[in-house]
User: What shape does this take?
Amino acid sequence: MFESKLLVAAIVGKPNVGKSTLMNRFIGEDLAIISSKPQTTRNRIMGVLTIDELQYIFLDTPGFHKPKNRLGDRMRRSIVDSLDDVDVILFVTYPKEDLDAIEIELLNMIKARETPYLLVINKSDIAKDKEKLRLWEKEISERYGFSKGISLSALNGENVDLLFDGLGKYAKEGPHLFEEDALTDQPEQFIISEIMREKLLNNLRQELPHGCAVYVENMQRREKSDIIDISSVIVCEKKSHKGMIIGKGGLQLKKIASEARIDIEKFLDSRVNLSCWVKVKEDWRNNETAINEYFQGFN
Ligand SMILES: Nc1nc2c(ncn2[C@@H]2O[C@H](COP(=O)(O)OP(=O)(O)OP(=O)(O)O)[C@@H](O)[C@H]2O)c(=O)[nH]1
Ligand SMILES: [Mg+2]
Assistant: This one.
């Protein structure tokens, strides 16, 4: 009989450094949404992977930034909460001259705990001079007291295995928290609203999607049919934004919904009939009640 082991790793760093891409790479599924815009992730997203006796639990977190509203405060809280009760912290950054002030602020919070923390320099594919990158990795690791440093590319997979293989040593003996085939603790409704938000991020310009929230209002499988009816709500901050989301003749919303439906069908492994409503709620990002309603109790 083998002993079961558990490894909980938090993935933290500034917005847009590739935390969600890395977690998806680890678990081999497109669980967390990814976009080229900063502050894509808004909640702590748990990715689970079980290989024989070892269960890995990865906590993908929102990008660490100076909060500008209550939503930002909440995102920061979910990062800070994720630093507790984990076995190892993966601090993700990318090749550049030095860590910046916000990263050092995050590092100081990490150092105040007794958890080992590793330096992950993601996007190694954009570094032209590999020797320079190696030296930077060594210098930053030493200067900031990282247990270990590694350069990798979450995008093309280079060196991700190396990091993954090294994580096993931080595992502790204990029972698994999830079934062997579990992927996440997030409810289906959350993943569906995230898929929709990804399509908003990809289709709408600039700041607009940052002011959007999505929630699933209703989800029901039709009797004697393999179709699931989903009705979702897109919340935006201004009437003019509503117009832009819907687009001329409803074309923009149609495009967003049809892209989302394809991914939701893949995720649920079922045919889906998706309806989307657009609602305006001014300044919802500063409204705790509204945030609670849209986040439906997710972390
Ligand atoms: N070149 C390159 N781009 C990457 C790599 N990993 C991620 N990206 C890109 O970086 C952007 C941000 O990736 P995300 O995974 O959403 O970053 P994040 O850190 O989760 O961002 P937030 O959720 O906003 O904090 C996307 O455009 C990714 O495709 C990498 O290894 N190399
Ligand atoms: Mg993310």
Summary: The longest strand covers residues 227-236. The radius of gyration is 20 Å. Residues 15-21, 34-36, 38-41, 62-63, 122-123, 125-126, 153-155 surround guanosine-5'-triphosphate (ligand 1) (CB under 6 Å). The longest helix spans residues 251-268.
